Amino acid sequence: MKNINQFRSLLVINGIIAFLFGLFAIFAPLETAKTIALYFGLILIGASVVGIIISVKKINQKQLIPYNLLSSVLSLIIGIFIVVYTKKSLELFTIIVGIWAILTAVLQIVILIQIIKRSVYRKVMIFNSIITLIFGIILFTNPLESIAAMVYITGALAIVFGSILIYIAIKIKSL
Q1: pTM of the predicted model, to two decimals?
Q2: Dist. CA 95–CA 174, nearest whole Å
Q3: Rounded-to-5 percentages of helix, strand, coil across the chain
Q4: What is the spatial distance between Cα 167 and Cα 159, in angstroms, rounded to a whole number?
Q5: 14-41: buried (b, 16+ CB within 10 Å) or exposed (e) per residue?
Q6: Tens of pLDDT along 135-157?
Q7: Nearest to 44 by CA among 90, 92, 67, 78
């Protein structure tokens, strides 16, 4: 019985955290996205510093792998950029994802035209290409609004997820 209560407590705590995150995401989507990006930048800086320290120690032991040092320095620069220019980083990331989606859609269309003349999946692939293209154009042309929408949807899902965890915890108590 003690194990069930510990499990129940974990469900309640995770449910409350998910629910609160969902509320923040819905009522302040851009601020939530900026906060997540800021923390990501800080984690990237910390990991980069550790990587640089390890690389410097490897230099002293004559075991340096240049890729590790270069990767750590680049990650440090990106982390600093994200922390200093959080909003611009979000916009840039969204634009890059938008370009990637547009290129993916164009590639799918080329594949459809060049390779897949007759296929059971042709209509599905056409539909997927169109949706991917629209998604990419929306991300590319409206990066901040797109971020807000994605965070809003994530917030709604987090509220549902948190509510389900809390509900399950309540049901476990009645066992």
Answers
A1: 0.70
A2: 50
A3: 90, 0, 10
A4: 12
A5: ebeebbebbebbbeebeebbbebbeebb
A6: 999 999 999 899 999 999 999 99
A7: 78
